[in-house]
Amino acid sequence: MLPIKWNRNVLFVFLFLFLLLAVSFLYNYHEILFYGPYSNHTWRQADCLSITQNYFRENLPFLSPEVHWIGNKGHGKTISEFPIIYYTVAQLWKIFGKEEFIFRLINIFLVFVGLFALNKLSYAILKDRFWSFYIPVFLFTSPLLIFYSNNFLPNAPAFGLALTGAYFYYLFDTTKQNKWMILSMLVFTLSGLLKITSLIIFVAILSLILLSGTIRILKKQQTLTSLIIKVFPFFCTVTILVIWYTYAHNYNQQYHRNIFLQGIFPIWELTPEKRQETAELLFRNLIPSYFNKEVLLSLLILFVSMLFLHKKTNQKLHAILIITFIGIMMYGILWFRALHVHDYYLTNILIFIPLILLVFLDYMKNYFNRAFKHLLLKSTFTLILLGLIAQGAAVNRLKYDVDESFEPNRYLIKQSQVDYWRYFHWDYKNEKKAFETITPYLRSIGISRNDKIISMSDGSINISLYFMDQKGLSKYGFSWLDDNDRIKFAMEQGCKYMVISDKDLNKQSIDSRYLSQEVGCYKNIHIYNLSN
């Protein structure tokens, strides 16, 4: 028979997995899993899928990704993050067929592994099953993490990998087994390759080692050689990241360099008026996406309280929390310009939430153990958790569908949110929905995948081009050109056809000669031949 302890551990693993799946069901993951790019930041979702699609269709080399948008280069060569997920999904599509749920499933898996690692880390520190389950599920109520875990962007899986790397490092720190250090650095490396900004916890750990090591050297309690040996694995990871981002920078400099941000968006590049505007948008729109405002305020109060009680907390964990908080402040300054609308940039700073809970609960365990274990405290926190899950489920479902019979609970969702998403879904249905299924029609009227198209009504880089699976141009870029000059420019880049989904556009600004050869109409999309 298997040992009872082993059976109990397996039981808790399955129980935690069941809990994640149950919460995911409430978030409507089982339906959203099979959606294409949609809802918040469809633009960036389509960019990720465009890279994947071109790997799949064209058997591109791993280090030579492309998108559908060709700009003024005649091709879509550009690079963002390390394309390991895009390339892997493309290879799986070659086996199982193009199924976008495969992409979503990989991202969900990496986030769930990270949450499981947080579960294991929490139990190792707190020695309490309830709290070890509570912390990762509590984190999983972030509207941001809920939405982007079941999605195509790399931010959430990179964050999941960072959590996993942190747990592996904890195992090394407590057992001194080198295998855990190797695993930790490998996972941190992959996390940083996907998103360098996901490594706030990695930098915090490295900073603590350097700081404590320097102090010990000054006190002659440690040698410089021993400190170098400790940080050597970290610098191996840093070296790999530097090599990759140097390659990516040079690749984009050679081809398309303005599609993906690979630098910083610092606050000092904004005017005072723009700083104020960005700050208002951040607090009004992005912070609620990050976490419930009231709960976040409570966490900040806990954080300040822990500062005054630092002598009674776990010193190593407390130091990592402080360094992480400093890192979050620096991150906010360096990428402030992106925080007016790009909520997924906040994914990296979700690390603050489990850290403050770990420090606080560890303090409770050591100094108020009866309260720490008391049913009343756990029941109170459970009620808060259930409220956050309910709110997260309502918000996430709203981003994909507004049921007309649904009367929003004003304690869960503001009416302004409902109104915004109702308009979003209506507008998408009328303008972009038809692009999702137009490809067979394009092929039926003789337009091949190699025929370049300009999508005149699409202001994004790749949304309509990805759906059509056509190389070409959209309204994005070259803003100094009016519509007629844009069409002329597109023809110079080899575009043979033009598609228009906005019926008013052709009446207002396009020369009639470009509209003289309509070769097809699919729902609200009109298709014109430009070759003559």
What labels describe this entry?
532 residues; mainly alpha; 22 helices; 5 strands; 63% helix; globular
Ends apart, CA distance between termini: 79 Å
Q: Tell the overall outline.
A: globular
Which regions contain 5 or more consecutive residues with pLDDT less than 50? none
Number of helices: 22
Structural class comes to mainly alpha
Count every beta strand, where a strand is a DSSP E run of 2 or more residues.
5
> Helix coverage percent of residues?
55-70%
Radius of gyration: 25 Å
Major beta-sheet overview: 5 strands, mixed
Q: SSE order in H/E notation? A: HHHHHHHHHHHHHHHHHHHEHEHEHEE
Characterize the structure shown.
The chain has 532 residues and is mainly α. Helices cover 63% and strands 4% of the residues. It contains 22 helices and 5 strands. A 5-stranded mixed beta sheet has the order 2-1-3-5-4, covered by helices on one side. Strand 4 and strand 5 form a beta hairpin. The termini are far apart.
SSE topology sketch:
Layout (H helix, E strand, L loop, with lengths): L3 H23 L2 H4 L9 H17 L25 H13 L3 H27 L2 H11 L3 H7 L5 H21 L2 H17 L5 H19 L5 H31 L17 H19 L2 H16 L6 H20 L17 H16 L1 H5 L1 H24 L16 H17 L7 H6 L7 E4 L7 H6 L3 E3 L8 H10 L2 E6 L4 H4 L9 E5 L2 E5 L3
Parallel strand pairs: 1-2, 1-3
Antiparallel strand pairs: 3-5, 4-5
Helix pairs in contact: 3-4, 5-6, 5-8, 5-15, 6-15, 6-17, 8-9, 9-11, 10-11, 10-14, 13-15, 14-15
Give a brief outline of the structure:
The protein is mostly helical and 532 residues long. It has helices spanning 4-26, 29-32, 42-58, 84-96, 100-126, 129-139, 143-149, 155-175, 178-194, 200-218, 224-254, 272-290, 293-308, 315-334, 352-367, 369-373, 375-398, 415-431, 439-444, 463-468, 483-492, 505-508; strands spanning 452-455, 472-474, 495-500, 518-522, 525-529.
